[in-house]
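Appendix B, record 7
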Amino acid sequence: MGQVMDHKSSVRERVWSELRKVARPDSRFHFDFGEFIADFEGSDAAVRRLTSHRYYQNAKVIFIAPDNCIEQLRLQALRDGKMVLMTTYSIKRGFWLLDPDRIGEAHYEHAAMLDGMEKLGRPLSLEDIASEVPSVDYLVTGTGAINHEGVRFGKGHGFFDVEWAMLYTLNRITASTPAATVVHDCQLLDETLYPDTFDTVADVVFTPTKTIEVSRPQKPTCGILWDRLDPHMLATIPPLQELKASGRTV
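Structure tokens (predicted):
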């Protein structure tokens, strides 16, 4: 366990030193990449690659993480008439549904931002997601580092892994639901990365200059590993509390 964490930390620190050269600082966290997934030079080109890909074209409901580098993707998805499921930063205020028909075109740009999402989107409990939201067709996230096999290391908090596990437990996604990552070329590594059991793996990686499709990515199917979950996450993330109280298992 300690060796895995040391490996991940070493990879992140190496990539973040290069990312700093092309990243756009966040108004809250500046260049603290342990607290946010940064936007970067060329993210618009990476998003264009994603929106021209068949996974996006075929999707009606997309989970899009609250990462800076894919804010434009959230906006484009609304313009394209797709329903967007997302979470707030750190999941602490739960899941939200952005329905383009309810929001209205004049408000799409505001809704795609984290502040606007909570004003214009609809908050959802896990029970709402299980009973009212169609299956999610596609998941998109940013990350800290990723390799050509789709193994991704995020900020170090595990938020996307938890989101995947909750949606998997609710039967809104399966192991065959495609997942994509948007990164700068400096975050794409040609080396072996060692994932943990619960680490999500991407089916496709989009950079400003490349589209990398992963052959037979191995997705986690374990749901939430409660005995390995950081107690602070359970104490501060209401959807996790709801899931644990529900007794749902995979």
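Remarks on this record: The mean pLDDT is 94. The radius of gyration is 17 Å.
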